[in-house]
Amino acid sequence: MAKRVVFLGPPSSGKGTQAKRLALRLGVPAISTGEMLRAAVAAGNELGRRVEGVMAQGHLVDDALMAEVVTARLHESDARQGFLLDGYPRTAPQASTLQAILEATEAQLDHVLLVEAPIEILVQRTLGRNEGRQDDTEEIVRERLRVYAELTAPLVDHYESQGLLRRIDGNQPMDVVERQIAAAVEG
Ligand code: ADP
Is residue 29 within 6 Å of ligand 1 at its C-beta? Predict the structure, then answer.
């Protein structure tokens, strides 16, 4: 069964929720780089201090720093048998870093799940969610969507050409999305 899965998709597509659900099903850790960074900011540690400003603007943390964060996390013992990545890779250089990490252990990605929804639905969902996040003004939400379209969306073609991409309609009830994802990784 599939054990190494990347979730791709714009902010508020629901991929975080779905990554956690699929992780339980597969018995592998769900690794959210956004959550890791927010935890670092909350802890006020060195990483948190370095990323706080960039995150608040809706921009991406630089690739070299993300490479350190993700390499360390994927080398932890719980990720050895598999993992779900939510929020990484987000740029072409990050996809290369992930590829290098996997090759070093002769591992491969099993699936890349693209969870999509129309842009106005994404904006409304983000503004409507009540997590107390400070980066959720409409201006910042639109900036994050713009950054996604510019830097992350190109990864869709990259993974499609490798035959790894599975497209999931995120504009459906969460349980329906969950079933379609389960079918995609099992089928
Ligand atoms: P979203 O709520 O947009 O899905 P995440 O929770 O995944 O976002 O990430 C929140 C923020 O953390 C991003 O806007 C970005 O600043 C930073 N971040 C998370 N993952 C990455 C990454 N792979 N590369 C660069 N920055 C990242």
Answer: no
* Cβ of 98 below 6 Å from ligand 1: no
Q: Which residue bears the tokens 């639905």?
A: 121
156 in the Ramachandran plot: left (φ > 0), alpha (ψ -120 to 50) or beta? alpha
User: Tokens in use for 1?
Assistant: 């069964």
Radius of gyration of the chain (CA): 16
Q: In b/e form, how buried is each residue of 19-43, taking b as 16+ CB within 10 angstroms?
A: bbbbbeebebbbbbbbebbbebbee
Instruction: Tell whether ligand 1 has an atom less than 6 A from the beta carbon of residue 180.
Output: no
The residues annotated with a catalytic role in the active site are 15, 90, 129, 133, 144
- Give tens-digit pLDDT for 18-50: 999 999 999 999 999 999 999 999 999 999 999
Both tokens of 164, joined, read: 């790894």
pTM: 0.92
Q: Can you tell me which atom of ligand 1 is nearest the CA of 58?
A: 14
Minimum-distance ligand 1 atom for the alpha carbon of 37: 12
pLDDT in tens, 124-136: 888 876 565 666 7
Q: How far apart are CA 185 and CA 180, in angstroms?
A: 9
